[in-house]
Amino acid sequence: MSVELNKKLNDSKFTRWMALGVVAFTMMAAYFVNDVMAPLKTMLEGQLGWGSTDFGFYTGAYSFLNVFFLMLIWGGLILDRFGIRFTGKLAAILMVFGTALQYYGITELADSNSVYFGYKAGVFISSVGYSIFGVGAEVAGITVTKLIAKWFKGKEMATAMGVQVALARIGSQAAYTLAIPVAKSFHLDTPVLIGLVLLVGGLIAFFAFSVLDKKLDKQIKDDKTSVDEEKFSIKDVGAILSNPGFWLIALLCVLFYSCVFPFQKFATELMVSKYGIDADFAGSIVGLPALGALILTPVFGSLVDSKGKADNIMIIGAAMLIFVHLTYSIPSINGWWVATVLMIILGIAFSLVPSAMWPSVAKIFPAHQLGTAYALIFFIQNIGLWGVPNLIGWIQKEFCISETINGVNQYDYTIPMLVFTGFATLSLVIGLLLKVANKKYGYGLEKANIEKK
Ligand SMILES: C[C@H](N)C(=O)N[C@@H](CCCCN)C(=O)O
């Protein structure tokens, strides 16, 4: 009887998964917007005169405010201080505002001749918008991660994180697949407009989730059996930073994701220029990892929940990434089917590492430090997401222009792919060190998540 009385919203399987579905929609819209400009790189160069450095600057802008204005750190602190609902709504509003500004940059300012800080007005304002969007998207990311840890504690936490990431990948896949056909059928800016509409839907979805979350908080407060969660204090930052597990996860995260997200932004062009894949179809190939991750991330997540072995899964994922990037870098291997198979392997790696890494953070840190821990990890990851596209854009401009057709540069991707291979190799080394640290400090990364009744 008393068990029934203490039943909370998240004890109902249907309600906790429904709540996840609602917030996952917000993140799906965020991922759509995040990726929708990438397949348009060549069209942006042809129609708006955006060169590779402009594109690298724009792509890196996603992380600029997060890194240089420490927005992710503030976001994490706000999350642990003011909670999931306030932070999530704030993040969603920032995403909508940033995307609207980005849209303005590629529409109203498309033909402007003004130059700001050495960049065309359209490039600069779109990048400012993308930067604001990036703050919202990253803060939304840590908020959703923390809310999953709260709603699924002692339950299917890794599966839930996997499902959320998988649903987000639908957004990415849709962006990669639709951007070029939509831009060709309508207008170059139409894909971004679609993203803006989706994000407004995502904002409404987060407000709806907040109603459920408020109810859950009341139930937790009324439940005499539930243990009061310790409040976050600024001293916790020191505790997080002095934990070797934090540094290893953060380094693995920055290195691994630097080989995936920035690579994907340039990959549509790689598919066309090196593998001769039709431009209309190239985005779909680049979207394959997202599609694969859609199925595989929840599968690997539930494996981590039931069997554990997160430490080994991260190592295998990193090793696969080395193979993929190294093979892409070899000039003589240029069959379209090789490019496709490599993308599928990248998709498997891209499912293995996130499904094991993100739930591992919740094992290393207590609940009241989670928002800040995730924020600090995202912060370090964002340094890579800012620096790597800029680095690749610069390398392309300086060393990789193979020819110029109708004023549009063609790029050789050998050096950029070797750079990605280097990052992947380092991520494997860190994965191995994490396994050693796991043994030494007893984080329990090899253990299953689901509590046995
Ligand atoms: C880019 C963002 N900071 C990120 O790392 N996203 C992850 C998902 C993180 C979710 C954690 N529960 C991704 O793999 O997309």
From TrEMBL:
Keyword Membrane present in the record's keywords: the answer is yes
Provide one Gene Ontology cellular component.
Answer: lysosomal membrane
What GO molecular-function term can you cite, just one?
A: transmembrane transporter activity
Pfam families assigned = MFS_1
UniProt cross-references to InterPro entries, sorted A to Z: MFS, MFS_dom, MFS_trans_sf, MFSD1
The free-text function statement in the UniProt record for this protein reads: Lysosomal dipeptide uniporter that selectively exports lysine, arginine or histidine-containing dipeptides with a net positive charge from the lysosome lumen into the cytosol. Could play a role in a specific type of protein O-glycosylation indirectly regulating macrophages migration and tissue invasion. Also essential for liver homeostasis.
Q: Which PANTHER family match?
A: MAJOR FACILITATOR SUPERFAMILY DOMAIN-CONTAINING PROTEIN 1 (PTHR23512:SF3)
**Name used for this protein in its record:** Lysosomal dipeptide transporter MFSD1
Please give the organism: Bacteroides graminisolvens DSM 19988 = JCM 15093
